[in-house]
Write a structure and sequence with these properties.
Layout (H helix, E strand, L loop, with lengths): L1 H17 L5 E8 L2 E9 L7 H4 L14 H9 L5 E8 L2 E9 L1
Antiparallel strand pairs: 1-2, 2-4, 3-4
Length: about 100
């Protein structure tokens, strides 16, 4: 799924900036017809506003288009059974997607 590819690309790009501090954790859980996928990565900037990050053109990287989360929002729009949430807390960026299967 393209949404997961974008999420991992973002996590890897941030991890490259962090060096030895980098870490990416993934959790996949399935129960009662729902699939939950959580991808967490360490992040450098912890005071970002999630609503701003969802806008096209937002980026924290040099020479970057800033389309990642905007693309995720666009790709998930047609599906009523996909819930996506983002959070920044305690130096971690968390992507959570829950969908019916």
């Amino acid at each position: 799924m393209r949404i997961l590819g974008i999420t991992y690309d973002n996590a890897i790009e941030e991890s490259l900036e962090l060096g030895d501090e980098a870490r990416i954790d993934t959790m996949v859980y399935r129960e009662n017809g729902e699939l939950e996928i959580e991808i967490k990565n360490r992040c450098r900037i912890t005071d970002l506003i999630i609503q701003d990050m969802r806008k096209s053109g937002f980026t924290t990287k040099k020479n970057h288009d800033g389309l990642g989360l905007a693309n995720i929002e666009e790709l998930s729009q047609p599906y009523n059974d996909i819930f996506i949430n983002y959070q920044i807390k305690d130096g971690w960026f968390t992507f959570l997607m829950v969908m019916s299967i």
